[in-house]
Amino acid sequence: MGSNMAECHPVAFRWPMKAKLNGAKLVHVDPRFTRTSAVADLHVPIRAGSDIAFLGGLINYVVNSKRWNSDPFFKEFVVNYTNAATIISDDFKDTEELDGVFSGLVKFSEPPFWPYNGLEGRYDSATWAYKRGPKGPGPATKDLIAKRAGPPFDDLVRSLKPGPAERDPTLQHPHCAFQILKRHFARYTPEMVEQICGSPKEKFLKVAEMLLENSGRDRTSAFAYAVAWTQHTYGVQMISCCALLQLLLGNIGRPGAGVMALRGHAAIQGSTDVPTLYHSIHGYMNAPSALRPHETLRDYMAAETSPTSYYGNLPKFLVSYFKSMYGEAATKENDFGYDWHPKILGDHSHIASFAAMAEGKVKGMCCVGQNPATSLNGVATRQALRQLDWLVVKDNWLTETATYWYLGPEVKNGEVKIGDNKTEIFFFPSTQIAEYDGSFTNTQRMLQWHSFAAKAPGDCRTDSWFYHNLAKRLKKAYAGSKLPRDEGWNKLTWDFDPDAGEEPLYPGEISARKVLREINGYQTADPKQHLKGFGELKDDGSTTCASWIYCGCYPAWDQNLTARREPDPPGVPGAHLKWGWAWPANRRVMYNRASADLKGNPWSERKRWVWWDPTFVNPPDPKTKKPVPKGKWVGYDVPDFGATKAPDAQAKPDGIGLDALSGTQPFIMRADGRGWLFVPAGLVDGPLPTHYEPHESPVKNLLYKQQTSPVHKVWAPGKPYNKLAVVGDPKFPYVISTYRLTEQYLAGAMSRWLPWLAELQPELFIEMGKGLAQEKGIKNLDWVVVTSPRGHIRAKALVTDRIGVMHIAGKPIHHVGMPWHWGWMGLVTGDVVNDLTSWVGDPNVSIHEGKAFVCNVEKA
Predict the structure, then answer these.
(1) How does pLDDT run across 18-54, given as a tens digit for each residue?
(2) CA triplet 433, 438, 439: central angle to 5 degrees?
(3) Which of 399, 390, 364, 358 is nearest to 377 (CA)?
(4) Which residue, among 310, 308, 288, 283, has the nearest Cα to 299 in the 3D structure?
(5) Between 791 and which of 77, 100, 281, 835 could a Cys-Cys bridge form, CB atoms 3.0 to 4.6 Å apart?
C-alpha cells in the first residue's frame, strides 16, 4: 500500500518476487493498476487519501474475527508486548464522543500564525496519558536542575520516572487501550470501507482473511509503503495505523514481518539518521528549541529523556555529540558547550521556509541536490525564490532552480520580467554519485561503503567539498569575533582534511573515512581508540561520538564494517550480518526480542530468529569482575535486548534505561517497553489513527462531522499564491495523484539529461480512465489542460483501463494520475506538475499533500 514497488523500487522488488516464488501471497492496494498490481495475487483499488479507513476496517475485522479471538498466540503477544492492557486517563475523550476530534483540542481565536499554523488549532495531549499510581520518592527534577546535578546524570534521569501505569491484563476495563481502540474502529465496517474507499467489499474481505491466515506463530506478513503513504495531511497516522494493525497480528519484531519504508533514494534513510532535517540532530534527538523548555543542558535532558526506556541513556548520547561538535572546549563546567549550539525557532521545514521566503523573511539560500522550482506549489515557490538576495545552486546540470529567473513559465508568458528578479544566483557544478567515496544508508538502515569509479570533469566538486570549504571559510571569518553568538563557530572542531599520506580525490576534498570515524566515535583521550558500540558511551565527556546510532560501524581505526560484502552461506539461516553494517548495533530486525515468547523460546521453529539460551556461560563482568549468571540471548540476528537479561528478570524499582524494564518488555525504545496501539505522547494530531478527508476533497467525511484533521498545517492561508478548493468544488471535481516512473527520477535533474532515459519517457502525460476521456471527448495522445486552484498545465492524454472511476457514497468520482518528472530544462521538457499542488501538509513532519488533491481536466 502507498507504493508502486515494481516500478519505483525495482531492485528491491526482486525480494517480494522471490517470496512469491516460495509461495507467499502478494497484495497490492492502490488507485492504479500498475506493474506491481500485474504480478500481485490480488489488486484492490482504493481512493487516494482513504488508506486509514481501509486499514481501520482491517483492524476492526481482525479484533472481531473468530481466528484472532480463538488463537492464544494473538492474546499472548498483544497483552504482554503491546500497551493494549494499559489504562488511559479518565479525562480522555475519543473521536467517537467528540464527533471527529480528540480531547485536548485548543482552538485558535484568530487565524493561525507561524509557528502555530494548524488549520483550527493544536492539541494539548495531557488527557491522552496513561492513568498512573503515585510517583516514587526522590529529589525533584527542578531541584536537580537548579543545583546543576551531574555528570553523571543518572539522578536527574531517575527523577523523571513517573508512577506505575495501571493495567488490566483481561482487556475488559472500558478505558484500557484495547477497548478504546475497539470502540474507535467499530464503525469502520466492510460496508463503510467500500463507501469511503471505493474498494469492493468482497476484495476488502479477501485481504482481511489473507492477513489473518498469514499471521500467527508459524506465519508472518509484511507491509511495504512509500511516499503515497507519507504525502498526506495525515501521513504519519497512516503509517501509525499500519503499525497498530501489525502489532495486533504479532507482525512486529519477527522475521518476514514489520512495516518497510521504501526510500526513494540510496541514502534518504541516511539523510534523516545524520540529518539534513531542521528539527533533529544526530540519532533522532530533537534539536534544541527556543520554543520548548530547553533553556539549559539539564532542562533539555529533562524534557527529552525517557527514563524507563533505552532513551534513558540520552545524556550519554548528547554529551558525546557535543564533544564531537566542540572537542576540548566542551567541558563539564560549560555544560559541554550546550549554549553554543543553535536553537530552532519553530517550523523551519521546506514549505514553511518558502512561505517565509515569499514574505521576504529569508535573505539567502544554498540549494544542494534539490530542485524546488519544480517543487510543491511551483508558482508560489518560484515567487518566493524571486524574493531572495542571493541563491546558491549546486547540481549536476543547470536545473530549473538555476534558470527560473529567465526561463520560468511566468517569464515566458510575460507575467514576470527578467529585470524584476533581484536575486544574485551562483551555480556550482556537482559530481555524480560514482565520482567520490562515501557511504549510503538504505531503507534497511544498512550502511554500505562505495568507492569512486571515475574522477569528475572540470570544476565539478562533491557536496562534502562544498560544505567543508564553506565551513573553513566561515570559521576564518568568525575567528576575530568576540560576540557571544559567534562563540559556537569559534569553538567548533573541524578536522576533516585528509591525513598525511592520504591522497584527496580533488583539491580541497575531505577524507570520507575520517568523517565516518567521527560519526562512529572514539575515546576522547585517544581518537585512534574507536568505540565498538553505543554501550560504551559516557555522559562525562570521556567519549566522543557524532551519531550514537552509527556507533560500532567503524569499531577500529582500520576496520570499516560498512565496506563488508560477505553473504551468509547458501542454505544457512541468517541475517547476512557480514554484509555492510546496519544500525543499531548491526541489527537487521528491530525489537527482535518479540520474535520469542515470554519464556524466551521461539514462537515456532519456522519463525525462529533470536531466543534465550539458558546454558550459555558468560564471562565475568568487565567492570566489577563479578561472575555473571548463565544465559544469553542468541540467534540469527543481533538481539535487540539486554544480552544477559533473562526472560524472567524483573524491572529494578529504582532502575533507569533497560534496568527499568523486565525480561518480557521487548520494545526497549518505548517508555513502557511495549508496542503502542494507543500513542499517549509524541504525535501532535491524535493518539489513534482517524479517517479524515484530504484538505481538498470532492466528498464530505462519511465518518465524522470533522472533515479534515483539525491540526494539519496550512501555510500562507488566504494568500493568492496558495488558493485552496472547498469541499466538493464543482470547478475541480476529480481526484489527482502525482507519481513516479521507472525511467525518470524525482524532478528529472538526474534523468532528463540522459538520452537513453529521455528516449524511454520523452513526454509529460496525464493518465485517465476511458470513462472520463469519453465524457470529455478526449482521445489517447490528445493535448489536455489540467487545472487546480493554484495553476494550470498542459500534458498528453494517456487513456487506459488502469485508472478510472470510483463510487464514493454512491457518487462516481474520477481519478487521474500524473508523473512529476518534467520541467523546462534537459533533453526532454514538459510542464511542471507541482504547479498544481498546494502548501498544506502533515502536522507532525510538515510533508506536503501531493497524493490526493483535486483538479479539472479539459481537452486543449
Answers:
(1) 999 999 999 999 999 999 999 999 999 999 999 999 9
(2) 100
(3) 358
(4) 288
(5) 835
